[in-house]
Write a structure and sequence with these properties.
Order of helices and strands: EHHEHHEHHEHEEEEHHEHE
Structural class: alpha/beta
C-alpha cells in the first residue's frame, strides 16, 4: 500500500512551538514499522514555521511575510534534522522536497516532481515534503499542507491519505458547543449536509482546519483514494487506520472507471 501521511503542526509541536519529542519519536517508529511491513510511506510534514517560532523565541506566529519566511527557514532545519536522526535509527533514509504552487501548476516542473518522487520510492526512500514557506508568496503559494497532501496522493496514485492533526474527525456539530455532537466514522459522499458540519480554523500555530481537510477529501475521493482525518495524539492509531478500522473519519473513495 502506498500511504501519504500528512502531519499537522499541532501534532508535531507543543503550543510553545517547540517539538513534541515523544510524539514525533512515536510517529517515526510507527512509520518505520509500516515501511518494514512493505508499505511505501510519503510524509507531508507541517511544522517549519511553528518550530521556527519556538526556536526564535517569538511569542506568536508572525503575521508579516518576511518573518514567516525567516521562521520557516530556521524551523525547517530542525524539522529535517529530527526526521533524519529518528528514521536513521530504524535504518531508513529520508529525502527533503520543498515545493511551491508553481512546481505543481507548471507542466514541466510537475513532471520533474513526479519523476523524482517515483525514483525516491523505487530507492526505498521516505520522501518528506513541505511547502517552501521560505520563498512562497501569495502568487505561488499552495496555502496549506492538507491540500499539498491531496495533491501528492493524487499525483502519485496513492492508496490512502491520512491527515493527523488536533481534530478527531468530522462531527455532526461542533463538539465544543454541542454535547450531543457525534463523530462520523465513515462518509460515503461529501454532500451539502456534510459541508454544513464544517467548523472553523485549527490551532494557532497551523494554517488548516476542517475546511481544508474537506477540500482535500473531495480531491482524493474523486480519484479513488480514501482519506482519513484523525487526531495525532496517539500515533499507534495509524496502524488501525491502515487496517481499515474505525479511527477518526474515513472519506470513502468513489469508484473510478
Amino acid at each position: 500500500m502506498r500511504i501519504v501521511l500528512k502531519i499537522g503542526t499541532s501534532t508535531l509541536a507543543h503550543e510553545t512551538g517547540r517539538l513534541n519529542i515523544r510524539r514525533v519519536e512515536e510517529l517515526c517508529k510507527v512509520m518505520s514499522d509500516l515501511k518494514n511491513a512493505g508499505h511505501e510511506i510519503i510524509l507531508v510534514s507541517s511544522g517549519a514555521i511553528g518550530m521556527g517560532v519556538g526556536k526564535l523565541s517569538l511569542h506568536k506566529k508572525p503575521e508579516d511575510i518576511p518573518t514567516k519566511q525567516a521562521a520557516a527557514a530556521v524551523g525547517q532545519c530542525e524539522l529535517m534534522y529530527t526526521y533524519d536522526k529518528l528514521f536513521s535509527e530504524y535504518n531508513h533514509t529520508v529525502a527533503q522536497i520543498l515545493i511551491t504552487g508553481e512546481d505543481i501548476e507548471n507542466t514541466e516542473r510537475r513532471t520533474n516532481f513526479e519523476n523524482t518522487m517515483r525514483r525516491l520510492l523505487e530507492l526505498s526512500v521516505i520522501p518528506i515534503l513541505n511547502e517552501n514557506d521560505s520563498i512562497a508568496t501569495e502568487q505561488i503559494v499552495i496555502g496549506d499542507n492538507d491540500t499539498l497532501g491531496a495533491i501528492v496522493a493524487t499525483t502519485l496514485q496513492a492508496d490512502l491519505l491520512i491527515i493527523l492533526s488536533d481534530i478527531n474527525g468530522l462531527y455532526t456539530a461542533d463538539p465544543h458547543k454541542d454535547k450531543n455532537a457525534v463523530l462520523l466514522h465513515r462518509v460515503e459522499e461529501i454532500n451539502p449536509e456534510i459541508e454544513a458540519m464544517i467548523g472553523g480554523v485549527g490551532s494557532k500555530l497551523g494554517t488548516g482546519g476542517m475546511i481544508t481537510k474537506i477540500k482535500a477529501a473531495k480531491m482524493t475521493t474523486a480519484k479513488g483514494i480514501d482519506l482519513v482525518i484523525a487526531n495525532g495524539d496517539n500515533p499507534s492509531n495509524v496502524y488501525d487506520i491502515v487496517e481499515g478500522k474505525d479511527v477518526g473519519t474515513r472519506f470513502i473513495a468513489k469508484k473510478v472507471d
